[in-house]
Amino acid sequence: MQFTKKLYVTLAGVVVVLAGGYALVSHHYQSAFLPHTEVAGVDISGRSVAEANQVLLKKVNNQKYTLKDQQNSVLTFSGQAAGFSHNFKPLLKKMRQTQNGWTWLSRSFGEHQTTKAEDALILDTNSFNQFASQTVTKLNASRTASKNAQVDLTGTDYQITKEVYGNTISLAKFKKTVAHGINQGTTTINLQKDYDQPTIKSTDQKLQKTVKELTTIANETINYSVDGNTFQVPKSEIRSWLTEQDGTVQLSKTAITNYVIQMKTQYDTYDKPLTFKSTKQGTVTVPAGIYGWSISQADEVAALMSEVPKGKSFSRTAVINGSGIANKTRSVGSTYIEIDKKAQHMWLYQDGKVTIETDIVTAKPPQVTPSGVWSIWKKERNATLKGTNSDGTAYASPVSYWMPIDETGVGIHDSSWQPKYGGDWYKEHGSHGCINTPPATMAKLYDAVSEGIPVVVI
């Protein structure tokens, strides 16, 4: 009985000692981190906030990081060199407040409590961006870039060129990987998953659809008619209009405009000299005048931009502005007026035959009757022609018949004041530029012609 009492006393003493020891240890952990506490890969168990902060800063400030690509080390750097620094105190204080010192024993046998350093991280964005940009540029200097699959024209066929898998480093991925590694306290950072990868593959359905669309359009038959001239737009020309951007077929307005300009250069008759078989001088070259036509560039570009993408063959007659010289024969046709200043004579040809001819009087030198391919653009009865004489005085000449032929006021009209026509009379008694015509003949000419008839002045 006495032994049992001593045992109890002993056991009680042990309990008191153990309890005291537990309390003493628990008291320590009221201001220190519990066992198995890690931050950024550093064990801070049993340390105070100040001690833990000192240990962590010592590690991160001296920590070196190694970049690896596959199995090769490509760069070693410090966090500070990359623009990273840390302030652990706020994080440590917050962690400490969540720990209960009395649970130190259970924590001793539990799992490690690992905390990342993200909340303690301070990042100088400008320094990090500069570090990342310079590093990636250096790493990519001798690497092969990835390429998307694309549509290429091979000869006359559109085909898909397969994508290329290169090994250049993506700047965006690099930044993410490095920042994550430093946050985790990882000293070896692998860049294997940071390669730029093709975003468009040869199996892409949109790309395959694009090839079919390009092929269909390129095989269109486009027939053109320009003032009786017919031709087909070459397939190679159509292909030169086509472009592809991210799987979308586009037409080059610039290329189509250039083609229309080529058509105008070849077929337009406006503002071009004319080879003309004259009555007395033989074949001559006549300067361009107002007679002729030109393809409407705006209309043709708009039409092609609208029709070509439909992928269907079509025929088109070009829109032309003006009227006149037939392109096929490059002539004024068989009905026209010829005025020969050297011969001081005028002929009216109708269906290839002379129906009216007369001597005339043209401009008195140094004034000129302009040579060129003109046309009668108006017919007017009983007009008064006004202008300025060479001495500066004004004149007003009433005429019975007036047919202007150019844009400056030169025309054909009767001239009752002229006593004679032809020969050298014009040198001293010529007009201000108009074609003076005998009144009786002018009356016949006025009735015989219509507006729009070409007038060739040589």
From TrEMBL:
<protein>
    <submittedName>
        <fullName>ErfK/YbiS/YcfS/YnhG</fullName>
    </submittedName>
</protein>
<dbReference type="InterPro" id="IPR038054">
    <property type="entry name" value="LD_TPept-like_central_sf"/>
</dbReference>
<dbReference type="GO" id="GO:0016740">
    <property type="term" value="F:transferase activity"/>
</dbReference>
<keyword id="KW-0808">Transferase</keyword>
<dbReference type="InterPro" id="IPR005490">
    <property type="entry name" value="LD_TPept_cat_dom"/>
</dbReference>
<feature type="domain" description="L,D-TPase catalytic">
    <location>
        <begin position="335"/>
        <end position="458"/>
    </location>
</feature>
<dbReference type="Pfam" id="PF03734">
    <property type="entry name" value="YkuD"/>
</dbReference>
<keyword id="KW-0961">Cell wall biogenesis/degradation</keyword>
<dbReference type="InterPro" id="IPR022029">
    <property type="entry name" value="YoaR-like_PG-bd"/>
</dbReference>
<feature type="active site" description="Nucleophile">
    <location>
        <position position="434"/>
    </location>
</feature>
<keyword id="KW-0133">Cell shape</keyword>
<dbReference type="GO" id="GO:0018104">
    <property type="term" value="P:peptidoglycan-protein cross-linking"/>
</dbReference>
<dbReference type="GO" id="GO:0008360">
    <property type="term" value="P:regulation of cell shape"/>
</dbReference>
<dbReference type="GO" id="GO:0071972">
    <property type="term" value="F:peptidoglycan L,D-transpeptidase activity"/>
</dbReference>
<dbReference type="InterPro" id="IPR050979">
    <property type="entry name" value="LD-transpeptidase"/>
</dbReference>
<feature type="active site" description="Proton donor/acceptor">
    <location>
        <position position="413"/>
    </location>
</feature>
<dbReference type="InterPro" id="IPR038063">
    <property type="entry name" value="Transpep_catalytic_dom"/>
</dbReference>
<dbReference type="GO" id="GO:0071555">
    <property type="term" value="P:cell wall organization"/>
</dbReference>
<keyword id="KW-0573">Peptidoglycan synthesis</keyword>
<dbReference type="GO" id="GO:0005576">
    <property type="term" value="C:extracellular region"/>
</dbReference>
<dbReference type="Pfam" id="PF12229">
    <property type="entry name" value="PG_binding_4"/>
</dbReference>
<comment type="pathway">
    <text>Cell wall biogenesis; peptidoglycan biosynthesis.</text>
</comment>
